[in-house]
Amino acid sequence: MSETQILVVEDEPSLAEVVSLYLKRAGFEVQVASSGGQAMSILEKRIPDFVILDVMLPEVDGLSITRWLRDHSDVPIIVVTARREEVDRIAGLEMGADDYVVKPFSPQELVSRVRAVLRRVGRDQLGAESGKALTFDSIQIDPRTRVVMVNESQVELTAKEFDMLHLLARHPKQVFTRDQLLERVWGGAEYIDPGTVTVHVRRLREKMESDPSKPKHLITVWGVGYKFEP
Fold it and tell me: 5-120, which class in CATH?
């Protein structure tokens, strides 16, 4: 197990202690923040490799922190909520969380979910590689700043458009099905229409391709899915 650094943001001391213990036993490095304000102080100095984030927090709520993180990084996030309403889970996933758990939960299940998210986004070996800028012909993609340049001009992308492009570009020529893209980019949310992927690909082509009707980079593999052609 690589020494993945995890920030646990949880205002219930006993739960934070148990979660931290299980994560450390699993081989992770753990830092704990007991409030949203403390978490933001930590994150503004350095973003860790993984964040486990309670939704209901004093000072700054978990959804606001999730939004801030997605504006600054692609760090994997699991949100924790005591609420069982679907709307709360949807909110976390729509803001960019990779998974969620509902209290009460098994600490071992949480560890398993962390490992699953790391596998899913291909980040078992986290480090500089995942943050390297990608350059293909006239396209530059910088995951640190979330800036995309095409022919030396910056292209304005939404958070999900960037996430999809970065995923495809990190695996050039690899074909992803729509279900795989929903899993990776939207957290496998079953309530999201698979047509959402088609819409996002079309928007990316309109913003990045010189002729969106004849794309050179964002290619449809008929009957299968999509790939990035460098």
Answer: alpha beta
Please state, for a pLDDT cut of 90, what percent of the chain lies above it.
44
C-alpha 121/C-alpha 230 separation (Å) is 20
d(CA 155, CA 182): 23
| Burial of 145: CB neighbours in 10 Å, binned 0-12, 13-18, 19+ | exposed
Q: What is the pTM of this model?
A: 0.56
Report CA-CA distances (Å) from 32 to 47, 76, 173, 206.
13, 16, 40, 43
Helices (H), 26-175: 36-45, 62-72, 86-94, 107-120, 128-131, 159-170
Residue 125 has a pLDDT of 42
Gap between the Cα atoms of 55 and 201, Å rounded: 31
CA distance 81 to 210: 44
Distance from C-alpha of 182 to C-alpha of 196, rounded to nearest angstrom:
9
58-67, 89-98, 200-209: lowest mean pLDDT where? 89-98
Q: Which CATH class is domain 132-228?
A: mainly alpha
**What does the DSSP 8-state code read for residue 102?**
E
Q: Where are the domains of the chain?
A: 5-120, 132-228
